[in-house]
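[INFO] parsing input record for ATPase (AAA+ superfamily)
[DEBUG] input buffer:
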Amino acid sequence: MASGAKFGRRYVRRILDDELDELIPHLPAVLLDGPKGVGKTETALQRCRTVRRLDVDLDRAVVEADPMVIADDPAPVLLDEWHRVPSVWNTVRRLVDQNPSGGRFILTGSPPTAGSHSGAGRITTVRMRPLTLTERGVAVPSVSLRDLAG
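[DEBUG] output buffer:
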């Protein structure tokens, strides 16, 4: 997993990163869900070999013309702003049905409305939230929730 500087910024490791590092190798497709600006794309970029930015005209045109093009991309494949090409959701579902091995796809985006898309066990949703005080370096936890859960 890559980390470090991208465009002059250093990636801030999130509490969620440990969970993703455990889940992604075992799940064929993960949807990073959350409000705009919480770091979904940056978090996914740390784990992907192929990036399809569907908010970029050229990437979107390629995937719109043939959504199955993602089948040949080296995994994990990031489908950033997946909702810009809604047909890609069903393509991922079909590809997962054909090959359910882990670590294949990470989808990110902030669709304007709650979607009625069903991954039906094929696409696991992981909710991202804004940086915690600890992640911002504002507070040091004296007791972590992880320790309490135990």
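[INFO] Confidence is low (pLDDT under 50) at residues 1-6.
[INFO] shutting down worker
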